[in-house]
Amino acid sequence: MASGDQDKKEYKMVVLGGGGVGKSALTIRFVNDDFLEDYDPTIEDSYRKAVNIDGNEVMLDILDTAGQEDFAALRDAWIREAEGFLLVYSITKRATFDEVVTLQSRIHRIKEESENIFMVLVGNKCDLEDQRQVSLDEGKKLANQWKCPFYETSAKLKINNIDCFYDVVRQIRRAHDSRKPNPSSGSSSAGCCCCTLL
Known about the structure:
Elements: E1 9-17, H1 23-32, E2 44-53, E3 56-65, H2 72-81, E4 84-90, H3 94-111, E5 118-124, H4 136-146, E6 150-152, H5 163-178, E7 190-191
Parallel strand pairs: 1-3, 1-4, 4-5, 5-6, 6-7
Antiparallel strand pairs: 2-3
């Protein structure tokens, strides 16, 4: 690690979601600007990336996690350690949308608090509009219930692949700055992009 990196504020986030939703593709696109064509199930991959968010140099510590239920015990440990969460589903698989609902409940149960849990809901693979099973409105409605930001993303086409990570940091920073929950954090940033692309 370069000496300058030690001075940066560090944010620890975890990318959660079902198997095959594109968690690794999204993470690697963000960290290395590469795209994974082939699906290779992840157990646990950790990445560090120095970025400038709104004029502040920060270090992101991102854990890309397994989607398989076999790793549920590991997932609980990841949740305990994280400050922020990217909850990812695929717009092409209805079951993965249901899965993020379960994961959100699990996060609240493990963290044992209902406030100050910083998350962004992500509907990935929005380039596959012709295979869509989860509507944009359903994603927006769920994010409104959770009072969190929502993005539809495409790791392949680089759509909202940076903003979704940055928004987790912005939530944490706002809460730290104000020392209290920010009830409006979910209303200002909702993104879609590709509903009309194809």
